[in-house]
Write a structure and sequence with these properties.
This protein is α+β, with helices and mostly antiparallel strands. The protein has five helices and nine strands. It is globular. The N and C termini lie far apart (about 45 Å).
């Protein structure tokens, strides 16, 4: 493994076009939420998010993928069925400055890191925005050391927050988590403050790690409606 200081690079949410080399084909598949700052996960376990690219439509050039969140209550058996929330993520491209007439554009294509989520079915009125702040060079499901950090914007009903993803329920090496959290704190601003509150999300059969000592505090009761709140309820 290369040195962690070289591998872990995070970018603030307000960076216009972060230089993140994100291969969406490799990014698809199931991720385990292993650390978070979002209060709703403090009473949940076995939280996963699965992404699956949707076929492109001739009527639209939008890049979209299905988004399936699954989880159990901490009190539930590891063999019990998980609750599920489904939606669709749509790539949000930043506005590019207009090039002067006759001038060739030298700008690199924007990184596919910003998305707008919309729920399916009765959740279709719910939306939220999220983005990738950084990830491992190889995010493919076959890489057990793959990681990603995602940021969720604040809505009228929910606070902003951060998640750390891993490809397996085993999670990530403690030294890697420590480095990721340290890099997030070093960004300062809102992200730096959020990173102070990271806590480990429980996974069945996995012993707790020692990389962070977040509060893991609850804010009120946490149930399925909190997951709806996590993924939105802001006007489209």
């Amino acid at each position: 493994m290369a040195s962690l200081s070289q591998d872990v690079v995070l970018h603030a949410p307000d960076v216009h076009n972060p230089p993140i080399d994100l291969d969406l084909q490799k990014f698809m598949g199931t991720w385990h939420v292993v650390y978070s700052t979002l209060p709703l996960w403090t009473s949940k376990k076995d939280v996963t998010i699965t992404y699956a690219l949707k076929p492109s439509s001739s009527a639209s050039n939008e890049l979209q993928f299905d988004d399936t969140v699954e989880y159990r209550a901490k009190s539930a058996l590891a063999t019990s069925s998980r609750s599920r929330v489904t939606g669709v993520d749509t790539l949000q491209l930043p506005q590019q400055p207009a090039a002067s007439e006759g001038a060739a554009s030298t700008a690199s294509p924007p990184a596919p890191t910003r998305y707008k989520w919309r729920g399916k079915g009765w959740l279709s009125v719910a939306t939220s925005r999220w983005q990738v702040l950084g990830c491992s060079r190889d995010t493919s499901p076959d890489n057990p050391d793959a990681w990603a950090v995602t940021y969720f914007e604040k809505t009228l009903f929910t606070p902003q927050g951060l998640d750390i993803y891993a490809r397996t329920p085993k999670g990530l090496p403690e030294e890697l988590v420590t480095e990721i959290v340290g890099r997030a704190k070093a960004l300062g601003g809102d992200v730096g403050k959020l990173a102070e509150a990271f806590f480990e999300v429980e996974r069945s059969g996995m012993p707790p790690g020692k990389a962070v000592s977040g509060t893991g505090r609850r804010i009120g009761s946490v149930n399925k409606i909190d997951v709806l709140n996590h993924v939105a309820l802001s006007p489209s």
